[in-house]
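Q: Could you fold this chain for me?
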Amino acid sequence: MQIVIHEASRADLAKIQTILRQAQLSTDDILVEGTRYWLAEDADRSPIGVVGLELGRTAVLLRSATVNPSFQGQGWGTSLVQWALDTATCTGYHYAYLFSTGAGAYWQRLQFQEVPVAELVAALPEAPQVKQYEQLGWLPTEIAWRRNLK
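A: Sure. Below is the predicted structure, expressed as structure tokens.
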């Protein structure tokens, strides 16, 4: 099966939102200024998965990493995450952070380590997801993860 990963544009917004809703992930702040997203599609241009980055000065916030349920367990999620992390590394970022309360073992396999939420917030205070979690009062219940990119 041929899968193509490409940087998402506004034309891809509906596909991204559909995948995120299927995974019960937030569709807020997708493709806003200061973010980049990648979409994996099959030969028929059906969406397979998505991953996004919110860009800071020296760090990025990885978010919206998910794969269509019929393609899970085939390595596509890891490929998408690695694609985003490789792009961040090549662009000069030093750290990648993310929030995850239920998939810690997965992120540890990808060389992320748990860090204090305050560290993530200090590194990415203007990230849309950080601002949203602050407004909603969710930061105290979150778990933060970091991977060194350099």
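A (continued): The longest helix spans residues 76-90.
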